[in-house]
Amino acid sequence: MTELDPTLERWRLILGAAGEGVTCGAALSDQGAGRDAALDWLYERDGDYDRRDIRRTGGLGPSVVQAVDWLDEIHRLFPKATIERLERDAVQRFGLQEILTDPGVLERMEPNAELLGAVLRTKHLMNPEVLRMARRIVEQVVRELMERLAQEIRASFTGTRSRRPSRIPRAADFDFPKTVRANLSHYRPEERKLYVETAHFRGRTRRHVDNWQVILLVDQSGSMASSVIHSAVTAACLWNLPGIKTHLIAFDTEVVDLTHDVDDPVELLMRVQLGGGTDIGRAFAYAAQLVENPRRTIIACISDFYEGGSEHWLVRTAAALVAQGTTVLGLAALDEQADPAFDRAMGQRLADVGVHIGAMTPGELANFIASTIG
Fold first, then answer.
1. Which tens digits make up the pLDDT trace of 173-229?
2. Does position 56 have pLDDT exceeding 60, yes or no?
3. Hey, what's the torsion of the CAs at 101, 135, 113, 40, to 10 degrees?
4. Judging by beta carbons within 10 Å of its beta carbon (0-12, 13-18, 19+), is residue 192 exposed, middle or buried?
5. What is the pLDDT of residues 300-312, one digit of tens each?
6. Is the pLDDT assigned to residue 25 strictly greater than 70?
7. Where is each VWFA domain found (predicted)?
8. Rg of the chain on CA atoms, in Å
9. Which bin fits 275, alpha (ψ -120 to 50), beta or left (φ > 0)?
10. Nearest-CA neighbor of 267 among 128, 139, 134, 107?
11. Cβ-based neighbour number of residue 185 at 10 Å
12. Mean pLDDT for the chain overall
């Protein structure tokens, strides 16, 4: 039997068994058959295929493939970008989080924010050996996030450029328009070059921050995994900024003050337990007890706002905080995508009493805080 050409084989793999019509009787290559079996192991779980009367049937592989064997196969058969997509779908789309309790699986998976979220959801199922391996994943992803976000967040608090000249030549403060105007007499038309004899720089107006509180309330229900991760990293980046006192509070139906672990986001995340109900009103009430000076306090509640407790109490507590002068933010997401998914009716009720409702990246939250206290 002849083998499919690469283009037709690609379509056959995309369509699964429903694509047999494009093969014209030709067979998949050995590699194609292996890829087909690996895709079947994962995507035959998709109920949408049943609704559309599509069946993906196994290729040449065994009828039952263990997760660790499946990972070995996809790492052998697919490019890196495809591997990451397959791993993400296995954990997020099909809920195969139990594969993370196998040390062989964790050892092979690429550390990323999605995998970290899955680790946080399943760490209570892990034995000590797997938990040690999972901790290395947490450390690597947190380190990468810290490197990426710390500079962006701290830059919001370094001050703004003023119109006053500066004697300190810093590239970031280079005054391009003034430098060009001052050196126009040194322009050489025949060379089409402007020679700079005197460079000009602008000074910076340092932000003066005096005893502000930033209280982050983080919903640790399962759907908020990404926001929990970025909240921990954001709190760590804010922790040592002069003049800002940072608190980090996790909540479901109970409230847990994690502030003493803020400087160690890895340890903090290993303590978080995703899942359970939601009592946002209780979290607001706890935050109210922490407020020292209402007009110098920002409370940011990161939640999907599906309240499991008393909705009336939640709105009343938020309204009281706003009335006393506290700046209250309600963030439906705090991550690098900032894709909001939340109870819009509750969001509107909170907005009606003065809560700022939205979704932000960590950098946008830092800019908001800096502009509020600056």
1. 678 888 888 888 888 888 888 888 888 877 555 444 568 999 999 998 766 778 888
2. no
3. -20
4. exposed
5. 999 999 999 999 9
6. no
7. 211-370
8. 27
9. left
10. 139
11. 8
12. 80
Three-state DSSP state, 41: helix
One-letter amino acid for residue 351 of the chain: A
Place of tokens 């139990």: 98
Evaluated on CA atoms 18, 22, 25, 30, the torsion sign reads negative
Percent of the chain with pLDDT strictly greater than 90:
22
- Contact between 147 and 233 under an 8 Å Cβ cutoff? The reply is no
CA distance 131 to 122: 10
Long-range CB contacts (within 8 A, 24+) of 320-325: 320/288, 321/284, 321/287, 321/288, 321/291, 321/294, 322/353, 322/354, 322/355, 323/354, 324/291, 324/294, 325/294, 325/295
Beta bridge partners of 122: none
Give the CA count within 13 Å in the CB-facing half-sphere of 136: 11
Cα gap 362→374, rounded to integer Å: 18
Tell me the C-alpha to C-alpha distance, in Å, between residue 57 and each of 7, 36, 93, 280.
21, 9, 20, 46
The torsion angles phi and psi of 255, rounded to 5 degrees, stand at: -120, 130
User: Which residue type does 67 have?
Assistant: A
The answer to whether the CB of 97 falls within 8 A of the CB of 88 is no
Are 330 and 350 in contact, with CB atoms under 8 Å apart? Answer: yes
Q: Is 138 helix (H, G, I), strand (E, B) or coil?
A: helix
Set out the domains of the chain in order of their start, with CATH numbers. 6-142 (no CATH), 160-205 (no CATH), 212-373 (3.40.50.410)
